[in-house]
Write a structure and sequence with these properties.
It is built from 13 helices and 18 strands. By secondary structure, the chain is α/β, with parallel strands linked by helices. Strands 1, 2, 3, 4, 10, 11 and 12 form a 7-stranded mixed β-sheet that branches. It has a 6-stranded mixed β-sheet with strand order 15-16-14-13-17-18, sandwiched between helices. The structure holds adenosine-5'-diphosphate. It holds the Pfam family FGGY_N.
C-alpha cells in the first residue's frame, strides 16, 4: 500500500498526517512548541520533524511513498554550505524588516507583494545589513525548505509558494532581474537564493541515514512543499475556478480560485500559483477576534442559536477592534462601526455576525471583479465554521452553497500535495 505523509509546521505546533491513495487519514501525530527561544528554533523544528515521523506506527512508516512539508510563510533562515543555520530563524511575524522599508522600496517594483516589513525579502535585506558574512557561500532558506533538506540533503531547494514573498516571479517561474542584480551586487553572489520547484514535485529520495533512523523506505521521496495557508486551502478540496475558502478565525481571510492572476497591493491582494490556476486572496481585520472581545465561544454558540438567520438584524456594523482595514475597504482610518449596541445580547450577536457576513460578501465581490472568476461555492474553515446560524446568515448574503470543509488541517493538505505525482487528481 502506498501512503503519503504531510507535515505542517504552523504557529502553535507541528502536525503530521498520513493518508492512503483514497485520501483517507491513516495516522496523525502532533508536536506542540515548548521551547520558543528564537536562537534554538531550527533545532526545535528538527526535533519536531523526527519526533513526528517516529511516532507514526512502524508498519506505516515503511509504506510512505512521498513526503511534503509546509511551513509558515516568510519564516526564513540563513545556512552555511553544510545546511547548518548560521543565524536565528526569522519568524513569519518578525517585523525587524521595518527598518529596511526605505531600502526595500528603492529595490522592488512599486506595489510588489514583497513590500512588507515581514516579507522574506525584507528579512533577506535585514540579514545582509546586520549579519557579518564571511567569504563563504550561504543559503537563504524558508522553514519548509530547510526541513525538507534534513530529509533529502539537497541544499537550496524551495517551491514557488514559499518564494512568492522573496520576490520570485511565479508567472515567469524565474527570479526577476531586480532581485538577482541586487543579490549579486550587494553580496557578490555569496548568498544563494533557492532553486525553485513546483509544490509537490519530487525533489529527491530520503537519505540512507534518514531511512535507518526513521524506518522509512529507501523508495520514499520528498516533494516540494508549500506554505501553511496554501496547504490548508488544498486540504479543503477546492480545486475548480470559482471555488473559495473563507477562513473565519481571529481575522477573516478569503481565497478564491481563478484563471486570472490578481495582485493589487492597495487592497493587500496577491495571488499564489496553484498549477494552472491562481489562488487570489485578501484578508480583513474583522473576524472572530471581535466576537471574542465581547463573548466567550460558549456564549457565541448558545446565544446565536436563538437568532433567526432569515431575518435582518436592522444593525449596520463594520466589526473591527481598532480603526483601519485594508480589504475589502482600503482605509487605514476606517472606524469600527459597532453602535448602537442593543441591550439584548442575541440581537447584538445577530448584528455582529451580519456585519462580518457583509464584509465577506463585499470581499468576494471585489475578488470576483478583479479576477473575473464567478463564485460557485465556499468552503469554510476556522472557529466560526462550526456555527450553523452564522453559516445560514452568510448564505443569505453570498447566495452560493457554503460547506464546512471536511479537512482543514494544513498537514492533510501537504499529504495531498505529496500524493500528486503518484495519484491522478
Ligand atoms: P485562529 O486560529 O485565527 O486563532 P480559530 O480558527 O481557532 O482562530 O477560531 C477562533 C475564533 O473563532 C475566535 O476568534 C472566536 O471568536 C470564533 N468562534 C468560536 N466559536 C464561535 C462560534 N460559535 N461562532 C462564531 N465564531 C466563533
Amino acid at each position: 500500500m502506498n501512503l503519503y505523509l504531510g507535515l505542517d509546521f504552523g504557529t502553535s505546533g507541528a502536525r503530521a498526517v498520513v493518508i492512503d491513495s483514497n485520501f483517507q487519514v491513516k495516522a496523525q501525530t502532533q508536536y506542540v512548541w515548548e521551547n520558543t527561544q528564537q536562537n534554538k528554533l531550527p533545532h526545535v523544528w528538527q526535533t519536531a520533524l523526527f519526533n513526528l515521523i517516529s511516532h507514526i506506527p512502524q508498519e506505516m512508516r515503511g509504506e510512505i511513498r512521498a513526503i511534503a512539508i509546509d511551513g509558515t510563510s516568510a519564516t526564513v533562515l540563513l545556512c552555511n554550505s553544510y545546511g547548518e543555520p548560521v543565524t536565528e530563524a526569522l519568524l513569519y511575524n518578525d517585523s525587524r524588516g521595518v527598518a529596511m522599508m526605505d531600502k526595500l522600496k528603492s529595490i522592488a517594483p512599486s506595489n510588489h507583494p514583497v513590500i512588507s516589513a515581514t516579507s522574506s525579502f525584507a528579512k533577506l535585506l535585514w540579514l545582509i545589513e546586520n549579519i557579518s558574512l564571511s567569504n563563504q557561500t550561504y543559503y537563504f532558506l524558508h522553514q519548509a525548505d530547510w526541513l525538507g533538506f534534513l530529509l533529502h540533503r539537497k541544499l537550496g531547494v524551495s517551491d514557488y509558494n514559499n518564494v512568492l514573498k522573496l520576490g520570485y516571479d511565479v508567472g515567469d517561474l524565474s527570479y526577476p532581474d531586480w532581485l538577482t542584480d541586487f543579490v549579486n551586487s550587494e553580496v557578490g553572489g555569496n548568498i544563494l537564493l533557492p532553486e525553485v520547484v513546483t509544490p509537490g514535485a519530487i525533489v529527491g529520495n530520503v537519505t540512507p541515514e534518514v531511512v535507518n533512523s526513521l524506518g522509512l523506505s529507501p523508495e520514499c521521496v520528498v516533494c516540494g512543499g508549500t506554505t501553511d495557508s496554501i496547504a490548508a486551502f488544498i486540504a479543503s478540496g477546492a480545486n475548480t475556478p470559482g471555488e473559495a475558502v473563507t477562513s473565519l478565525g481571529s481575522t477573516l481571510v478569503l481565497k478564491l480560485l481563478s484563471r486570472t492572476r490578481v495582485d493589487d497591493a492597495k487592497y493587500g491582494i496577491y495571488s499564489h500559483r496553484l498549477g494552472d490556476l491562481w489562488l487570489v486572496g485578501g484578508a480583513s481585520n474583522t473576524g472572530g477576534a471581535v466576537l471574542r472581545h465581547f463573548f466567550t465561544d460558549a456564549e457565541l454558540s448558545s446565544l446565536s442559536s436563538q437568532i433567526d438567520p432569515n431575518t435582518e438584524s436592522g444593525l449596520d456594523y463594520y466589526p473591527l477592534l481598532q480603526k483601519g482595514d485594508r480589504f475589502p475597504i482600503n482605509d487605514p482610518e476606517l472606524l469600527p462601526r459597532l453602535a448602537p449596541r442593543p441591550e439584548n445580547s442575541v440581537k447584538f450577536i445577530h448584528g455582529l455576525l451580519e456585519g462580518i457576513a457583509k464584509i465577506e460578501l463585499r470581499g468576494y465581490e471585489l475578488l470576483q471583479a478583479l479576477s473575473a472568476a464567478t463564485l460557485t461555492n465556499v468552503y469554510t474553515a476556522g472557529g466560526g465554521a462550526k456555527n450553523p446560524i452564522f453559516t445560514a446568515i452568510r448564505g443569505r448574503y453570498l447566495q452560493v452553497p457554503i460547506t464546512k470543509a471536511v479537512y482543514t488541517d494544513a498537514a492533510y493538505g501537504s499529504a495531498v500535495l505529496a500524493s500528486r505525482q503518484f495519484i491522478a487528481q
